């Protein structure tokens, strides 16, 4: 499975994504931030970056691999880690290396 790249995530920043933390119950989330990582040393290395999703659900789910869906990007799986929560919901980060 090919994962979206940094440019694709940036293009759809602010769009609604569905993240399925519990089977058949997607949570509405949006990209809060796309951060660049270290530059690849050579062409065989992948682009490094991270994506922070802001989710409406206030329940904190454990880090793990979850199904993500978007109307244009399709469906893919990401390893997500809860990074912080506030009165609006929980933020999860995916790191690409």
TrEMBL record:
Domain DUF6916 span(s) in chain numbering: 6-96
Superkingdom of the organism of origin: Bacteria
InterPro entries: DUF6916
Record-given protein name: DUF6916 domain-containing protein
């Amino acid at each position: 499975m090919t994962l979206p790249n940094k440019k694709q995530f940036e293009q759809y920043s602010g769009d609604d994504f569905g993240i399925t933390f519990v089977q058949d119950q997607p949570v509405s989330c949006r990209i809060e931030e796309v951060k660049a990582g270290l530059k690849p040393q050579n062409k065989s290395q992948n682009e490094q970056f991270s994506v922070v999703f802001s989710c409406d659900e206030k329940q904190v789910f454990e880090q793990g691999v979850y199904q993500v869906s978007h109307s244009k990007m399709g469906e893919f799986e990401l390893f997500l880690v809860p990074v912080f929560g506030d009165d609006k919901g929980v933020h999860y980060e995916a790191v690409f290396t």
